[in-house]
Structures are given as C-alpha cells and as structure tokens.
Amino acid sequence: xxxxxxxxxxxxxxxxxxxxxxxxxxxxxxxxxxxxxxxxxxxxxxxxxxxxxxxxxxxxxxxxxxxxxxxxxxxxxxxxxxxxxxxxxxxxxxxxxxxxxxxxxxxxxxxxxxxxxxxxxxxxxxxxxxxxxxxxxxxxxxxxxxxxxxxxxxxxxxxxxxxxxxxxxxxxxxxxxxxxxxxxxxxxxxxxxxxxxxxxxxxxxxxxxxxxxxxxxxxxxxxxxxxxx
Length: 229
Fold this sequence. Notes:
Uracil-DNA glycosylase, Uracil-DNA_glycosylase-like_sf, glycosidase, EC 3.2.2.27, hydrolase
C-alpha cells in the first residue's frame, strides 16, 4: 500500500514493518474488494495518509486523535475533525471552535479546513483511515487500528516531548500507553454535542499545549486558522 499511495518517506521508513505485515496486506485487499463492488470509500486514496504527509515524524509537536473519517459526500480529506474547503464545519468542530474562542480569544473561522494546524506540527490522526460513504464505522476492525497504534508508538518514542490531546474515552483508551512522564497528555470529554458540556468546554487544551511547548523551548502552534479565499 505504501508503494501505491502517497506517503511521506520518513513515515514510510518508520512504518516499514507495518506495511510488510500480513494485516496490512489483508487491509489492502479489503479496500480493493470494496471498490470492486462499487462502494465509495472516503477519503480518496491519495489522501489516506494525508495527516502523515503534512506532519512528518520529526515535525510532530501535538497529536489530536479522532476515530473515523467523516462519511458524508465531500467531507473527509485525511485529517481528523477537518473538512474540505467549502464544507460547513460539523457539530464537533463547531464546539472545538467554541473552546478555541473561549481559551485563546480566536474567533471561529467560516470553514472547517484544519490543514494550517497540520503544517505546524499538529498530527490530526484518525484511528481508522477509511470509511464507506454513509456507513459510519464501516471500516473498523479491518486493520487500521493496529497501523495507527504503530504511528502513536512512533511519536511516543520521540526524544522531544509531545502534547497528546485526547478527547473522549475512545481516544484515551487508544493512547493509554503514551508515556505521560515525558509527554503532556490532555484528557477531556469529546467535543460532540452529546458530551461537550461534560468537560470538553472549558478544558483549555490549546493554551495548555502552547504553554507546554514554550516551556520545552519549542515554537507554539498558531491555532488561528487563515480564512479561505
């Protein structure tokens, strides 16, 4: 799969054993079979690893974990919580923007395109990297979770401290092995409208992340997203 789909070379080297594993061969075949049946898979193939392409291992400062790609038309493009330009921000992202404004005074942008964060070192990683259109969670337990565990292990092993932002129980379980004695691990409720008022709103993850980075002598993230033309 790494040879046929665009992937940053440093990630390709770090994940070489994963790409050569049996589970990844089975996952690749599953995706080929689904496409052969005429099923539409999101995001498009060239964007499966978009989060890795934009944020190479050496550049990772912050990790935000999501679960599955958006399964609506035109939404997913390989970054968790982010949607393509021209697509209205989904409810969870709107709550992320509310917290961003409360935390740092940054007014919500009119779009949901988070690529600016990724280019600054925010790894916007979903646990599962593909989904069938209109079928939420349809590609869970096909192998992606094992692959993304390996990504998190790679970041956990970095000598530089990293901020892990874990929203909701799923993300917290997935990254339970992260070394909190070296890295900053921020946990709160998920920004979903169902849970945002149970500990997400008011959690101030953005200012905490930047304070930690600055304390480590690293450049903070500019969380203000540029407006789209």
